[in-house]
Design goal:
single chain; 270 residues; alpha+beta; Jelly Rolls; four-stranded antiparallel beta sheet; 29% helix
Length: 270
């Protein structure tokens, strides 16, 4: 276990405990790193499967050079008509990816198993709407050359303001496994900054952007991590984070980990 500049490096996920999750929640820790979480063969196999299934879909607006396989809750939360697609596709897309990986464990499946065993109350796939299928759990991103993710925060409670589960969530962590890293760029930039309200957040948005916060108003990142292939990084997604421009492809498998307090199960969703 190595602790440097509010970034803790662990040897295995079984070392994750209540104290460390609490430290991510409060900001005492910026990130947890687990190098070599996935093997080179696992990374290569899953990357190849994602690329075969990737149909050219990208985010809109200023994240247009970021391709995805798998729908995110954020994408459909602004369009109620698409919420049915989100639940309809959630399980079948992950099953299709498993088939293309031909028995190789998906990184997100591995995270779910490991955190279920490590956390005292286990981990379950999130169900924001009880009458529907489980949430999608696994968002696979390909940041194309020239692509980036600007400074932003993730707030499921703002995306689903009328949902009891979303409102009860204490915070959400981002869990990223780096399947392929860029030759240059693609670092994970982390800020201690966390807007207290949606109004504060909106006042700090970059003019003309549909999601980015203005770095000129917030300042430079507090922590910058250069991910390694196969590494798992967990961080508080409600605090500012960004990915600088890449000069070559960057592929990740990711999900959110919902934290409802020490006496409750963790949840996984995308």
């Amino acid at each position: 276990m190595t602790h440097t500049n509010k970034v803790l490096t662990l040897k295995q996920p079984s070392q994750i405990n209540q104290h460390l999750i609490g430290a991510l929640h409060t900001g005492a820790l910026h990130a947890i790193r687990i190098p070599n979480y996935c093997s080179e063969f696992q990374c290569a196999t899953v990357t190849a499967a994602i690329e075969l299934l990737y149909d050219g879909q990208t985010y809109s607006g200023s994240a247009a050079n970021v391709g995805t396989f798998g729908l995110s809750l954020y994408e459909v939360s602004k369009n109620p008509d698409r919420i049915h697609d989100y639940y309809r596709l959630a399980l079948c897309e992950q099953e299709l990816l498993r088939q293309y990986c031909n028995g190789v464990t998906l990184p997100i499946d591995q995270i779910r198993i490991d955190l279920d065993e490590a956390w005292q109350h286990g981990l379950k796939i999130e169900r924001f709407h009880d009458h529907r299928a489980p949430a999608n759990c696994g968002l696979n991103r390909i940041v194309l050359p020239g692509g980036f993710l600007g400074l932003h925060v993730d707030r499921t409670d703002w995306d689903l303001p009328d949902n009891d589960r979303a409102q009860a969530m204490c915070t959400q962590f981002g869990a990223n496994v780096y399947l392929e890293t860029a030759q240059q760029g693609g670092e994970l930039e982390l800020w201690q900054f966390m807007p207290a309200t949606q109004a504060e957040h909106d006042a700090l948005m970059m003019p003309g952007s549909d999601y980015q916060l203005d770095r000129k108003l917030i300042g430079e990142p507090d922590t910058v991590i250069t991910p390694q292939r196969g590494e798992l990084i967990i961080f508080n997604a409600r605090r500012g984070h960004a990915v600088p421009t890449v000069n070559s492809k960057r592929v990740t498998a990711s999900c959110f980990i919902g934290y409802y307090g020490d006496d409750h199960a963790l949840s996984a969703y995308s």
